[in-house]
TrEMBL record:
InterPro entries: DUF8040, HARBI1-like. This is DUF8040 domain-containing protein. It comes from Puccinia striiformis. It comes from the Eukaryota. Residues 6-62 form the DUF8040 domain.
């Protein structure tokens, strides 16, 4: 098994003489891949909780040490074939190396340390920066930032450390990162933002005027849309009294 061989290549003291890496890796994947608990792993693999914990930490350390080998940034010397083979991309994105974005990963934090980890999404998290190439592989990760950190801080911290981009090349990102020489962020001009509000309101009125109070396209449930149609097509609902 390829992954087992790679893990064995990492020079570390073995966690157990009885447990081979071929059993340690499934324990780790069982917990990480399925969000299972230590107790569930005990029942599945018939080992004590202490052994499960040791194996999990051991494989995790080995995996982290392997990261530099498999996180390889795209060469600046060649243009990705995904770009060259598509006239929609080339030559406009010949200097584009991939895309970057942030994601909030849920975090378990002690009660008296939760405040810095409370993200704008409402849960405790770490703010992680991920960078991918056109082959859908991660080239770089910046972990460890608290949930309250803005994406701008995370990416600039990465640039100040070990995430280097040669002049003239760039990554794609969303509007939260802003435009720079190394990041091409999506977005609309301010005047277009104004027009978008009016356009969306206009589409809403056209849709309601044409389809009435039900709307199959925008409704997730066709059955629910049919219920609305049966109720509202004959007579619109009467106005309700109260404060709205």
């Amino acid at each position: 098994m390829f992954i087992c061989g790679e893990l064995l290549s990492v020079q570390m003291e073995p966690v157990s003489k009885l447990l081979q890496i071929e059993e340690q890796l499934p324990i780790f994947l069982y917990i990480v891949g399925h969000n299972n608990s230590n107790r569930q792993a005990q029942d599945r693999f018939q080992h004590s909780g202490q052994t499960i914990s040791k194996v999990f930490r051991h494989v995790l350390k080995r995996q982290v040490q392997l990261a530099p080998k498999f996180f390889i940034q795209t060469s600046h010397k060649t243009i990705p074939h995904q770009t060259l083979s598509n006239p929609k991309f080339s030559p406009f994105f010949d200097k584009c190396l991939g895309a970057l974005d942030g994601v909030h990963i849920p975090a378990s934090v002690l009660a008296h340390k939760t405040a810095p980890y409370r993200s704008r999404k409402g849960f405790l998290s770490q703010n992680v920066l991920g960078v991918c190439d056109f082959g859908m592989q991660f080239m770089y990760m910046r972990v460890g930032w608290k949930g309250t950190a803005h994406q701008h801080w995370v990416v600039h911290d990465a640039w100040s450390k070990d995430f280097k981009i040669r002049q003239g090349f760039f990554y794609l990102a969303d509007a939260g990162y802003g435009l720079s020489r190394n990041v091409l962020a999506s977005g609309y001009q301010l005047e277009q933002q104004y027009d978008l509000v009016l356009a969306c309101a206009c589409l809403h009125n056209i849709n309601v005027g044409k389809n009435g109070y039900y709307d199959i396209i925008f409704d997730e449930s066709l059955a629910m849309a049919e219920q609305y149609k049966a109720i509202y097509t004959k007579d619109p609902p009467p106005p309700r009294a109260g404060v709205f």
